[in-house]
Amino acid sequence: MLELKHLKKYYRVGDSTTKALDDVSISFREKEFVAILGPSGSGKTTMLNVIGGLDRYDTGDMIINGKSTKNFKDTDWDAYRNNSIGFIFQNYNLIGHLGIIANVELGMTLSGVSKEERHQKAVDALQKVGLGDHMNKKPNQLSGGQMQRVAIARAIANDPDILLCDEPTGALDTETSVQIMDLIQDLAKEKLVIMVTHNPELAEEYADRLVRFEDGQIKSDSNPHQEHPKG
Ligand code: ADP
Ligand code: ADP
Predict the structure, then answer these.
(1) What is the pTM of this model?
(2) Which residue from 12, 21, 45, 219 has its CB within 8 A of the most atoms of ligand 1, so it is best to mutate?
(3) Nearest atom, ligand 2, residue 44 CA
């Protein structure tokens, strides 16, 4: 459903060029949990941002549901981002002075969903992530794990096909991280989930697939639960 073909993304700053993505080719299935590992500066976040439609690639192609994005206009990228993508981050990115339901509704303001429907979808999503009893609170009344659940509710409320996670447990203790990973693993049964992480133990335990980046290139792509990987 999502395929990157010889994708390149270079950053030019002054006289120097950084090859953030240097000929990346990879296919993702409709429902799988992919962990992206690799040293700092290896291109992980750049790939997530390109897949999420936040950044544009320079050359190559990204195929979405069989369709090339080479000729996508800004409006096409906006529609793709608003309808097909959910994003979660290490620091939750919640708005402190808004209530929890309003935070979740905010994720749908650009999606063309009516106000009533946004409210219903927000409530449904909060119930799905286990926050049914906390819906009338504000973010600062919640624990870190609960705040990440709100962020996950916001990301999935409009039922995107793809959930992109940038260090989702980076600010959480081990016990809470495990609970959040259980939730994300559940979501990967119905979506493509791509997660950048610095935590190889969590990645190996939870993901169906480990992709390692180095210097803007994919160095390996394997199934952690297969004892004798092919090739
Ligand atoms: P990672 O997520 O693996 O740490 P990034 O994708 O953030 O790696 O960065 C890949 C490379 O691209 C790094 O060398 C980084 O410094 C560079 N880079 C990322 N974003 C920019 C930018 N906006 N301008 C210039 N260089 C950037
Ligand atoms: P990460 O924790 O994912 O590695 P970074 O700290 O590398 O993130 O980057 C944080 C932000 O700064 C990103 O949005 C990235 O695009 C930007 N960035 C990274 N490297 C550079 C750079 N050399 N010049 C400008 N922006 C950069």
Answers:
(1) 0.90
(2) 45
(3) 3
Q: Name the β-bridge partners of 3.
A: 27, 63
**Cβ(45) – ligand 2 distance below 6 Å:** yes
Q: What is the pLDDT of residues 96-129, one digit of tens each?
A: 999 999 999 998 988 888 999 999 999 999 999 9
For 195-204, the pLDDT digits (tens) are 999 999 999 9
Distances (CA, A) of 231 to 35, 44, 78, 80, 227: 20, 24, 39, 35, 12
Beta strands in the chain (DSSP E): 2-13, 16-28, 32-37, 59-64, 67-68, 85-89, 162-166, 192-196, 209-214, 217-222
User: Does ligand 1 come within 6 angstroms of the Cβ of 43?
Assistant: yes
Tokens of 175: 């016990």
DSSP annotation of 56: -
For ligand 2, say whether the CB of 91 is within 6 Å of any of its atoms. Answer: no
Q: Mean pLDDT across the stretch 210-214?
A: 98
Distance CA 204, CA 11 (A): 31
What does the alpha-carbon distance between residue 215 and residue 24 come to, in Å, rounded to a whole number? 11
| Ligand lying nearest the CA atom of residue 40 | 1
